[in-house]
């Protein structure tokens, strides 16, 4: 599946940049802190006899964008790892932080944030890297990731639903009558595209996570029915049981 990028977040540090206009998304990232801390605790195997984390860990943020939010989730994860190690008197592991977004993302500013993150954590090392590409495709080597995070990104679909584009039906028709008439069909087409994309996302991450790896993801959505739930069952034989 290819993800052709036609839009991206405003680049740079100017007045209209994403870097200076992403406070709402940052509030959502802060809401994920306890979940990231719980994921780190789970990775340490603290439910069994040992509370030790692995000596090397890989943490990735998918759809990182640019500006301060790009490193927010991985910074929360690094802090959580260090606090956990202090608590259990373990030397902190070496951590590799990988940030992903589509190729047209403003990676220039992201790289500068990664340099700062690397320099402020020199012992033990926090190695950093950029992984450009679509998270609806394979991005990382098999069984290599301990923790995958993603905030405010997974509602971006890989493409508009083909049933609609084939018939030149827009997501929002300016003619109110036509819009209301097609509303259920348009909603269903987008829901189906989301299901297809999200299934691919889970399938590829299941390959890339270590056995017992963890994912913390948050995305914008709408509760269309009372049955909508936050618990998602991953396909059988995936490394992680919960997200
Ligand atoms: C609203 S920004 C969220 C950025 C950041 N995670 C935050 O919480 O502020 C959504 C980001 O997802 C990226 N994105 C969308 N589709 C993607 C895909 N298929 N693969 C990788 N990144 C994608 C966009 O380029 C954009 O930078």
From TrEMBL:
The keyword Aminoacyl-tRNA synthetase does not apply. The keyword Repressor does not apply. Keywords: Magnesium, Metal-binding. GO terms for molecular function: metal ion binding; methyltransferase activity. It comes from the Eukaryota. This is Jasmonate O-methyltransferase. It comes from Triticum turgidum subsp. durum. The lineage of its organism: Eukaryota, Viridiplantae, Streptophyta, Embryophyta, Tracheophyta.
